[in-house]
Amino acid sequence: MSVTQTTESILNYVDGGWKNAAVSEYLPVLNPATGEQIGSTPMSSASDVGEAVRAASKAYPAWRRIPVGQRIEYLFKLRTLMKENYEDLSRMITIECGKTLAESHGEMLRGIENVEVACGTPILIQGYNSEDIASGIDELMIRQPLGVCAIIAPFNFPAMIPFWFLPYAIACGNTVVIKPSERVPLTMQKIFKLIEALKLPAGVVNLVNGGRDVVNAILEHPDIRAVSFVGSSATARHVYTRSAATGKRVQCQGGAKNPVVILPDADFVTSSEIVADSAFGCAGQRCLAASVAIGVGEATKPFIEAIRQKAESRITGFGLEDGVQMGPVISAESRARVEGLIGKAINDGAKAVVDGRNAKISKYEKGTFVKPTVLEGLPLSSEVTRTEIFGPVLSVHHVNTIDDAISFVNSGEYGNMACLFTTSGANARKFRYEAEVGNVGINVGVAAPMAYFPFSGARGSFFGDLHGQGRDAVEFFTQEKVVVERWPKDWTRKF
Ligand code: NAD
Q1: How far is the CA of 192 from the centre of ligand 1 (A)?
Q2: pLDDT tens per residue across span 403-439
Q3: Which atom of ligand 1 is least distant from the CA of 157?
Q4: Of 12, 37, 163, 178, whose Cβ has the fewest other Cβ atoms within 10 Å?
Q5: Is the pLDDT reported for residue 488 higher than 90?
Q6: Alpha carbon of 236 to ligand 1 centroid (Å)
């Protein structure tokens, strides 16, 4: 199979047309499996952001007046186009991001599902009312759009994550500026070709490529009303703080360090298979990846043996090839960081039950691969146990009781996801009740909410109030307005 890619020129999309960014700085985009350069991201400036915001501001007054039922007609068309281009988009995700084709298919499906859910905006946007709050006086709550909204995405889900926000934002009558990750801009180029084909009014959806300068220009721009961000916790904190300081509505999904707990009554064969998919799927570059496994009581030994086998047998390679179960990490820097943390863990006393460093994948010597790694014997308090690794690394630990495990779950910086493996309903309920995280899995290793549920997150994994997806997204992208009204012809009381 040929894996050669031509270098594509990457453009911004502003005011209904493709535009070169006004810059001379470009970031090379590499296929992380082959090391080939496949594009160059223009590192757009504040003036490119300004142009996009002007276009979005100009489009907003007319767009908000288009009835919601007509606005979602564009989403019906977009869904059809995404389905028709599903294979092509999935392959692009694999080529620029590294995940397997099956994982890219899953990503696309969730993106499409969000478009489908946003097609329900005519119902989701409805307010409520009360007649006769006083004699002859009625009160109602209506939802109105905000204006220009910005969406800032991370590298690990180039197609899906923007769709946690985009379809809801425009269905609610807002206009949008999207900034993809500078490391994976190509999937969004293809998606914008589909958006172009929708023939939306110019300026309703705009694309600005680049890095932190684009983000900072968004945060400082007075005409942007709301910011939706997904990325690392350090950047999420920055985006949250600056957005709040400049008076914007903001929702920021951050990083994670997700624990999974295995009770002695779990089925170790099935549980280890599910945990392996969670820890090593997407090469561990998933905010819902399991990265710490806690064996309770008798569970630890059989679980380690079962997960060792799953880690050793996982086939690593270029995600477009048949049979490959895990791709590379995103970059050489990322590989060095992941391998450095494995080395640090070993220096801190861990045993590498499976050591995935120095991976050599035949035909793909320039790829940035780290194979599945299982560590044992690290103290629960160690730095590596608590740092987000964002690679295919699982550390396994032992505690005596479910209460000890829940204390650990609730003790870290992050609160994105925690999972329990058990056959006891009582323990499952206790865990679900007490775990202080946004997403809980019971015998599920990647508790990824469907598009009609919020993608939750808590503590250091989420900053804000309303999440992406579903009803939360519609609430985020609308302003509640309360009206109290009395009509002279309907006086029921004389003054
Ligand atoms: P990142 O924070 O490096 O980048 C995210 C976005 O912020 C990018 O668009 C980037 O250009 C921009 N950015 C980066 N540094 C910046 C800075 N200093 N100032 C302003 N903008 C900046 O994240 P990433 O490496 O692309 O993505 C991986 C991270 O995202 C992981 O921590 C992962 O857990 C997290 N993530 C979280 C979720 C979730 O739902 N909680 C989902 C996916 C990914």
Answers
A1: 21
A2: 999 999 999 899 999 999 999 999 999 999 999 999 9
A3: 43
A4: 37
A5: no
A6: 7
- Average per-residue pLDDT in the chain? 96
256 lines ligand 1 (CB under 6 A): yes
260 lines ligand 1 (CB under 6 A): no
Contact 39, 183 (CB under 8 A): no
pLDDT per residue as tens digits for the range 234-284: 999 999 999 999 999 999 999 999 999 999 999 999 999 999 999 999 999
Cα(340) to ligand 1 centroid in Å equals 20
**Tokens describing residue 57:** 């501001």
Give the model's pLDDT for residue 487: 86
| Best residue for ligand 1 mutational test, from 232, 282, 334, 413 (most atoms within 8 Å of Cβ) | 232
pLDDT at 17: 98
Q: Give 125's contacts (C-beta < 8 A, 6+ positions apart).
A: 68, 143, 171, 172, 474, 478
Query: Is the distance from the beta carbon of residue 181 to the nearest atom of ligand 1 less than 6 Å?
Result: yes
From atom 26 of ligand 1, which residue's Cα is the shortest distance away?
A: 154
Residue 287 catalytic?
yes
Buried b (16+ CB within 10 A) or exposed e, 485-494: eeeeeeeeee
- 143-159 mean pLDDT: 98
* pLDDT tens-digit series, residues 218-241: 999 999 999 999 999 999 999 999
Which ligand 1 atom is the nearest neighbour of the CA of 231? Answer: 30
